[in-house]
């Protein structure tokens, strides 16, 4: 079990994260927040890259800093910007990282074949990575994170560059893996985690906003999400009054999904809240998603 | 048979000792010796992965070629030599080590592999330390060759110039490893490296006669003594750097 206790991080006078309390058991956790909210800071602390200013992180009751290499051995990490050596093949790069991970040499080749198979890169394992597309590089990144059969898998924006088919494959893969490990996926793309995450962690104002399953989090907006159809001409005025969550043109009219916390008018259809709605409502004032 | 509630089963002394040793071993795992740790890293990584970047090899070869060219240029010019050569040798001997180490880290930074590699079991410091050891070995041979070439071409004492160059090399390497082993790694190592270049250059430029007399007349045995102390310090700082924790390094 991974426990985050009263965790905080300051950079000089700037507070990146404060009073975070979390607990992770085996399963998939979606870390959802807009860019700049502190997701990457939290992740960097979880993978020991940066030290917290306050609080601590414990694995099975022991501080991860004290565990040192014994903790790092348990981690699989995909950074937001996955770097690689262009003249290396996936096979060679994974062998290199396996050496750094301290993996048993006898089993490395077999494990590399397994993880490359998982991300559908077996056919190109001897091809130099300089010719790979962004999606292929990202899949190499996912493969290296899985390489050491980690107990804690931390993926920062893992679906960046993946096409819809690859995203679906990735979600299936994570669902299979989640039974025996903690998987934490940081993203601002709601659809990546909505269907697979056991719990969603949301950060706002540098601290924890929600931690719970999708249904529970969505319940907070029950009775506040509506849909209404209107002529195009009315939409501009309507938008000034309400937070709109989705718009589409249909049968010559504008079909609008929106948030109305305090009132309901005739003609409005109550809608089932979704995680995307929670995201847009909670972060309505954040500049990155307005 | 009646049960004696006051009779508590107690392990014998041998069992107590065995259990105590087990607890101590778990709580305080024995640190491997210097050579065992080195062997472990070398076996784990292999030479090819200690130098994963092809451009590093190209850069090192280029550096070697430039060094050879410079030596050739100096030796082909004139047989007379400035006394300040010894000072230049002291200043320049660790420069190849500095440039190769700096370039290796620039490459990791530029290729964005650094962040990922810092979350691995083998620490970045173990890799740095082993690389510095290897580079020091290579630089030692290059220095010896350069000293020999100079001794053959100029009226200089081979042993003196070789030992001066090694003093510079091990002095710098030890300092570098010392700062690697401390906190605030990047800032301190950069300041140390720049200070080395600046202070030594300033020292050379303002060098006076009395300094030169010391350089020429100081008995070799004193130089050897200083060198041995620096080599001892090198291994001490190497062990420190090799075993330091890397948690939280990203903000250093």
Task: Describe, in plain words, how this protein is organized in 3D.
The complex is a heterodimer of chains A (290) and B (252). With 290 residues, chain A is of the alpha/beta class. Chain A folds into 2 domains: 2-218, P-loop containing nucleotide triphosphate hydrolases (Rossmann fold, 3-Layer(aba) Sandwich), CATH 3.40.50; 223-272, no CATH class. Chain A contains 11 helices and 14 strands. In chain A, the strands form 3 sheets. A 6-stranded mixed β-sheet of chain A has the order 6-7-8-3-9-10, with helices on both faces. Chain A has a 4-stranded antiparallel β-sheet with strand order 2-1-4-5. In chain A, β7 (152-156), α7 (164-177) and β8 form a beta-alpha-beta unit. The two termini of chain A are 36 Å apart. By secondary structure, chain B is mainly α. Chain B has one domain. Helices cover 76% and strands 0% of the residues of chain B. Chain B has helices at residues 13-27, 34-50, 54-77, 85-92, 95-110, 114-117, 124-153, 158-181, 185-205, 209-217, 220-243. The interface between A and B is medium-sized, with 32 and 29 residues.
């Amino acid at each position: 079990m991974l426990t985050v206790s009263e965790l905080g991080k300051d950079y000089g006078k700037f507070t990146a994260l404060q009073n975070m309390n979390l607990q992770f058991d085996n399963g998939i956790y979606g870390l959802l927040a807009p860019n700049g909210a502190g997701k990457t800071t939290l992740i960097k602390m979880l993978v020991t890259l940066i030290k917290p200013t306050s609080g601590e992180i414990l694995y099975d009751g022991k501080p991860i800093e004290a565990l040192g290499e014994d903790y790092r051995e348990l981690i699989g990490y995909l950074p937001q910007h996955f770097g690689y050596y262009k003249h290396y093949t996936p096979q060679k790069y994974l062998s290199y990282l396996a050496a750094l991970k301290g993996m048993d040499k006898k089993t490395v080749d077999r494990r590399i074949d397994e993880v490359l198979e998982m991300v559908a890169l077996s056919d190109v394992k001897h091809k130099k990575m300089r010719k790979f597309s962004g999606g292929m590089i990202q899949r190499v990144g996912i493969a290296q994170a899985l390489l050491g059969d980690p107990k804690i898998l931390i993926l920062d924006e893992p679906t960046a560059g993946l096409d819809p088919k690859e995203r679906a494959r990735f979600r299936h893969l994570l669902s299979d893996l989640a039974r025996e490990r903690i998987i934490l996926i940081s993203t601002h793309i709601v659809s990546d985690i909505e269907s697979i995450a056991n719990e969603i962690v949301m950060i706002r104002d540098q601290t924890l906003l929600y931690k719970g399953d999708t249904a529970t989090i969505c319940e907070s907006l029950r009775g506040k999400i509506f849909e209404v159809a209107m002529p195009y001409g009315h939409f501009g005025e309507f938008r000034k009054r309400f937070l709109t969550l989705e718009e589409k043109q249909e049968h010559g009219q504008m079909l609008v999904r929106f948030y109305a916390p305090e009132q309901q008018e005739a003609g409005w259809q109550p809608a089932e809240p979704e995680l995307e709605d929670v995201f847009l409502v909670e972060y309505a004032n954040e500049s990155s998603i307005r | 048979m009646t049960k004696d509630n006051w009779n508590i089963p107690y392990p014998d002394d041998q069992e107590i000792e065995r259990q105590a040793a087990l607890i101590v071993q778990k709580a305080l795992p024995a640190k491997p010796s210097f050579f065992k740790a080195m062997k472990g890293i070398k076996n784990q990584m292999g030479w090819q992965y200690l130098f994963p970047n092809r451009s590093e090899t190209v850069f090192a070869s280029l550096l070697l070629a430039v060094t050879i060219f410079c030596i050739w240029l100096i030796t082909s010019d004139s047989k007379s030599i400035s006394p300040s050569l010894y000072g230049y040798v002291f200043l320049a001997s660790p420069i190849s080590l500095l440039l190769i180490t700096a370039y290796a880290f620039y490459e990791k930074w530029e290729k964005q592999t650094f962040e990922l590699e810092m979350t691995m079991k083998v620490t970045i410091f173990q890799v740095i330390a082993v690389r510095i050891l290897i580079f020091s070995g290579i630089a030692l041979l290059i220095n010896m060759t350069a000293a020999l070439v100079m001794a053959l071409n100029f009226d200089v004492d081979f042993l003196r110039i070789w030992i001066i160059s090694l003093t510079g090399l091990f002095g710098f390497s030890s300092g570098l490893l010392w700062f690697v082993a401390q906190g605030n790694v990047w800032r301190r190592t950069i300041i140390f490296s720049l200070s080395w270049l600046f202070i030594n250059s300033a020292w050379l430029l303002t060098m006076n006669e009395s300094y030169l007399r010391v350089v020429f007349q100081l008995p070799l045995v004193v130089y050897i003594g200083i060198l041995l102390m620096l080599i001892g310090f090198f291994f001490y700082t190497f062990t420190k750097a090799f075993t330091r924790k890397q948690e939280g390094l990203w903000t250093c």
